[in-house]
């Protein structure tokens, strides 16, 4: 049997999956590590902890899968986007991993936007101006930790760090380079204007390579520990978001990948780089002639969790006592309410919002409440509001890439039949739930198979990914959503003007019992 290992370097854990040549998972290791949040808005990881997780994960799946010599054809990586590590002249980290979730550069994102420079750079990098972006993080470092930036001989991301430790080379794939905001998607090289604004030189950045690039010559000490032969090709791979599109079989033009986990995203693949004229969607490289256009959404399942914890605390306790899933119980309660929640609308912006509105000051609201509305209406309206918000992202994508033809949907929300059907009804599209295990790791493995000529085309992923459920839009429901969506969207626009005032009020009158930082 021929095997490939796909490794996904995530925000709170590294997942290693041993796939056979048909994309079936044969062994799995999930190794968690802390996300350090010891200062306001900080979200860092320890590079050494991640490296250890990679070595242990590789070792574990090699052992569990009982892989014989010669059977492992390659190892490939997926990684979270937007990470930054500064390395000194002795190749030692000067910082921990500053992750996408780190918000300390917020002020500099605002300045970049206000000056218009952010929008200019966006036109050639495809990365919305936001504190998540390494470009903005470097401006923050330049202003607030100039001593560190001065000492930085190399500026890299988490995957580059792992590869440096395994192979002694600083290399970065186009996909993760693209996510730095320093990479010009039309010249496929570092962007001179972005480098200047970031205050760095191209000599500090890794060597750029394509996502199917192979590296060999694994450090013999790690080869011995993991059981992976020194000459096994490592395929550099790409970013987790783009690989997830591949891993859920959302590769054809017109197929949308919709995810509702803790956060959410809507993404589609196009064959050349296109940039959203309004700067609200990202454009990220996946592989030759495959680019992912989409929007990341903060307010996904985390909002449902808030509804459960704050509005249905007694039911949550009862569910726990009865040993039933509390989300399942709540969706049953919501299922008694008709589509459209009898005219109750909900804007889910509890944590500010990235796409579609890119406003850190956005706040949530119920609109249209009457005395007839119950808590059950509120839970249904919340689930609908999360989907309406994703629909707005879809409308923006549609403006660039044309009308979608179907949806591949993933994430914790897919456990609920009601919520899956709601997605089909609001979007008026067929929704498939792919049967895909660790989609970003599978995406990395498929990229490796292509690089190693084990498959002719990435589209062969469709043979590897089954479908667990399919939902068709129900007319009686989508007719209701057609009436409500324009109101929800208009309302969203009208509220924009007031978000700053209410967020400022909240900042000026902080609740002493609430220490949670605003995550936009
Ligand atoms: P993550 O994005 O952190 O990997 P998941 O994809 O598992 O997490 O998504 C978690 C979210 O999925 C929860 O916050 C909740 O909103 C939703 N969820 C979990 N179980 C159910 C369920 N049975 N029905 C509906 N939604 C659910």
Q: Could you explain the architecture of this structure?
A:
The structure is a single chain. The protein has helices spanning 47-64, 106-115, 117-125, 134-144, 146-151, 158-167, 174-178, 192-198, 220-226, 240-247, 301-311, 313-322, 326-335, 375-401, 417-427, 439-451, 475-508; strands at residues 3-9, 13-20, 25-32, 44-45, 72-79, 85-87, 97-98, 154-156, 171-173, 183-184, 189-190, 207-209, 214-215, 234-239, 255-260, 264-270, 282-287, 290-297, 345-347, 365-367, 406-410, 431-435, 466-471. It is an alpha+beta fold. It folds into two domains: 3-248 and 436-468, Nucleotidyltransferase, domain 5 (2-Layer Sandwich), CATH 3.30.420.40; 298-428 and 474-503, Nucleotidyltransferase, domain 5 (2-Layer Sandwich), CATH 3.30.420. The strands form seven sheets. Strands 17-18-16-15-21-22-23 form a seven-stranded mixed sheet. It has a six-stranded mixed sheet with strand order 3-2-1-5-14-13, with helices on both faces. It has a two-stranded antiparallel ribbon with strand order 4-7. Helix 4 packs parallel to helix 8 (192-198). The longest helix has 34 residues, at 475-508. Residues 515-520 have low confidence and may be disordered. The structure holds adenosine-5'-diphosphate. Adenosine-5'-diphosphate is lined by residues 261-262, 301-302, 304-305, 325, 327-328, 331, 411-413, 415-416, 419.
Features:
single chain; 520 residues; alpha+beta; Nucleotidyltransferase, domain 5; six-stranded mixed sheet; 17 helices; 23 strands; 21% strand; globular; disordered C terminus; binds adenosine-5'-diphosphate; Gluconate kinase; Carb_kinase_FGGY; FGGY_C
């Amino acid at each position: 049997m021929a095997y490939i290992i796909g490794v996904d370097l995530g925000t709170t854990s590294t997942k290693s999956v041993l796939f056979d040549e048909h994309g079936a998972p044969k062994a799995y290791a999930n190794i968690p590590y802390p996300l350090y949040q010891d200062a306001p808005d900080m979200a860092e990881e320890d590079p050494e902890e991640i490296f250890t997780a990679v070595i242990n994960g590789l070792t574990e799946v090699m052992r569990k899968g009982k892989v014989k010599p010669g059977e492992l054809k390659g190892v490939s990586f997926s990684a979270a986007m937007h990470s930054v590590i500064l390395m000194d002249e002795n190749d030692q980290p000067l910082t921990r991993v500053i992750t996408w979730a780190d918000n300390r550069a917020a002020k500099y994102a605002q300045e970049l936007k206000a000056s218009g420079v952010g929008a200019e750079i966006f036109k050639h990098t495809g990365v919305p101006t936001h504190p998540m972006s390494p470009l903005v993080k470097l401006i923050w470092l330049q202003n607030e930790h100039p001593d560190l930036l001065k000492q930085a001989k190399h500026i890299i991301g988490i995957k580059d760090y792992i590869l440096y430790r395994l192979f002694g080379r600083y290399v970065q794939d186009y996909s993760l380079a693209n996510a730095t905001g320093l990479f010009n998607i039309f010249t496929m090289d570092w962007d001179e204007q972005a480098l200047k604004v970031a205050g760095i030189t191209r000599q500090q950045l890794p060597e750029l390579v394509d996502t199917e690039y192979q590296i060999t010559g694994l450090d013999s000490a790690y080869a011995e520990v993991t059981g992976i032969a020194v000459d096994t090709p490592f395929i550099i791979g790409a970013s987790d978001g783009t690989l997830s599109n591949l891993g859920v079989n959302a590769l054809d033009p017109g197929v949308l990948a919709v995810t509702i986990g803790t956060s959410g995203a809507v993404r589609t693949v196009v064959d050349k780089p296109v940039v959203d004229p309004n700067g609200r969607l990202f454009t990220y490289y996946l592989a030759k002639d495959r680019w992912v256009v989409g929007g990341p959404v903060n307010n996904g399942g985390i909002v449902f969790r808030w509804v459960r914890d704050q509005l249905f605390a007694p039911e949550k306790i009862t569910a726990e006592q009865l040993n039933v899933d509390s989300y399942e119980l709540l969706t049953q309660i919501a299922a008694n309410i008709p589509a459209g929640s009898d005219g109750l609308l909900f804007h889910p912006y509890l944590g500010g919002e990235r796409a579609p509105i890119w406003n850190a000051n956005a706040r949530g609201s119920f609109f249209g409440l009457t005395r007839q509305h119950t808590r059950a209406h509120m839970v249904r309206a919340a689930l609908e509001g999360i989907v309406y918000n994703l629909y707005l992202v879809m409308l923006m994508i549609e403006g660039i890439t044309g009308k979608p033809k179907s949806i591949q949907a993933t994430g914790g929300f897919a456990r609920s039949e009601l919520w899956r059907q709601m997605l089909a009804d609001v979007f008026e599209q067929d929704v498939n739930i792919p049967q895909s295990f660790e989609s970003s790791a599978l995406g990395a493995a498929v990229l490796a198979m292509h690089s190693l000529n084990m498959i002719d085309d990435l589209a062969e992923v469709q043979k590897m990914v089954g479908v667990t459920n399919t939902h068709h839009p129900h007319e009686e429901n989508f007719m209701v959503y057609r009436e409500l969506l324009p109101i929800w969207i208009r309302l969203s626009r009208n509220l924009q003007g007031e978000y700053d005032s209410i967020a400022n009020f909240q900042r000026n009158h902080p609740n002493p019992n609430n220490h949670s930082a605003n995550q936009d």
